[in-house]
TrEMBL record:
Lineage top rank: taxon: Bacteria
Protein name: Alpha-amylase
Residue stretches making up the Glycosyl hydrolase family 13 catalytic domain: 140-488
Species name: Candidatus Enterocloster excrementipullorum
Residue ranges of coiled coil: none
Protein family according to the UniProt entry: Belongs to the glycosyl hydrolase 13 family.
SUPFAM superfamilies according to UniProt: (Trans)glycosidases, E set domains, Glycosyl hydrolase domain
Any single biological process term in GO: carbohydrate metabolic process
Amino acid sequence: MKKAYRVSADESRLYPMGLTEIPGGIHAAFASPASSCALLLYRKGRKALKERILFPEAGRIGNVWSMTVQGDFTDLEYTFEADGKEVPDPYGKSFGERARWAHAEHRERVPRALCRGQEPFDWGKDRNPEIPLEDTVIYHMHVRGFTKHPSSGVSQEDRGTFRGILDKIPYMKELGVTAVEIMPPAEFEELIPEKVPDGPSLSAESVSVPEKKINYWGYIPALGFAPKAAYAGEGRMPEREFKNLAKCLHEAGMELIIELYFDGTQPQAYGLDMVRWWVREYHVDGVHLVGYAPLDLLAADPFLSRTKLFANGWGERKKEGARHLAEYGPEFMLEMRSFLKGDEGQLDNLAKNIRKNPEAVGAVNYMANTDGFTMMDMVSYDRKHNEANGEDGRDGTDYNQSWNCGAEGTTRKKKILALRKKQLKNAMLLLFLSQGTPLLMAGDEFGRTKKGNNNSYCQDNEISWVNWGLLKTNRDLYEFTKYVIAFRKAHPVFHMEKEPALMDYRSVGIPDVSYHGVKAWRPEFESFRRQLGIFYCGKYGIKPDGGEDDYFYVACNMHWEPHAFALPHLPKGMTWHIAFDTDDKEGSGFFEPGQEPILENPREVMVMARTIMVFIGKKDSAHNETTPLID
């Protein structure tokens, strides 16, 4: 009887790990310390094993087993076997059988990868935008949650998929973001093993545990080389749809950044291979390294030297001066939230975070992220409300730095609702007028809420899905956010190439950025103070056309009482105008170019309680002379 497959181990060529298609068959490479390994073949969609092909001992180098197999692999799926135990290929490129989200069959068998890849993808003239960190505005989302809600307006078949994101590219473009960051897109297991919380006071009767608890976020070890099949859907090709997403974002002038999770058990070489794969095969522009990634290896890799790499801390790697690296952690969020709600002793943190933008390693800033409150919940809840998670409130941080503005959760009191909206506008200004790279969670621009749940890792429902109906309800917040983003882009003094030095290093008469108290040029940092002025010299901000930026003064008052600020002098022939006033009860809180009201008394202005005002120095065409700026 003629054998269907011919195996050889004398291949001299060095192949990558996993399965590689070659003329007439495949080459398999699998790392395992087992004493015997095999390739297991299945017909697509069938449960019964079709073929078991042993790796020859002669093809083993160290713990890597290799062999070339000649034969027909059309419509076949595979796994590996190590000492009798079936395991998935960690380098598998496509797991199409897992296209149904959170399906019970996923638990029943080991994930099987496709033996044959799909046809080549036409990238055309695709190029990575390579937007500098200082010019980047990130929009962070969960692939499924972004468009799964019926209010998204996306077709039923595309809701919660890579293709669903395509429908929102015009929206994101109008909002002004330049990069999309998506939570882990690699193939992971959604179903969490069912368990009853333990503890002396808990029982199955006292705690409500979801029948099928979902790992919604994906922060677990994944099959890291394959786009998640359930983010495409049944009968679809996730690899093609992910590539099309990257290509379409690039055509719109936007970047694609992905999260990859590392639990510390993966070999460092595997981590490097995985990041390189997404950059090379899928043209991603950046990777947010979550968990315990091999940072030294990745930071030093020349292949990734023009890829944005984000991590919680780069430590001594800062000395390498690699501007594609950026720190991505909660420090900005927690400290700026503390200032926002009026805590004592926060002015030093405000001054630090407003200017933080290290020359060697960038900084990603956010006011809300995956774990923790949304921005709306940040001003609506004093404490977490994670009852739906079934863990008796033991999950999720208790350190939210939030304030409910007078009522816990939903309320109809107009005074409280107005204060919450005002605080959100204050938060948007703090975020987008800081020097670091701003990140906005999808939906925060129109008041998305998770109903006080600060750890929605298992909530695949309206708690986690973005409710697009709020875009109409909170249209004013959306318009404010959109304008703040455009304002940041238009004025380079708010996103300089390097951190402000607080010095007059160009000998123009005043520092690039300076801090002020209620009196000009007299900063006050006592712990009881909650107000600070920041003066930006336009001569340090050069616009794309070579022209100088405007002068700005940002007055931040998070005290519950109003304070009078004395503004510094402008050059002769210039006057202060109001660009933003979050206490503007009759209008939008911002004034478009040419409509900024002139400040009636430029020597002193009253900034109301819990208010941020931004003043712009505009030239009077009748004067051209200048005078010293420091009194």
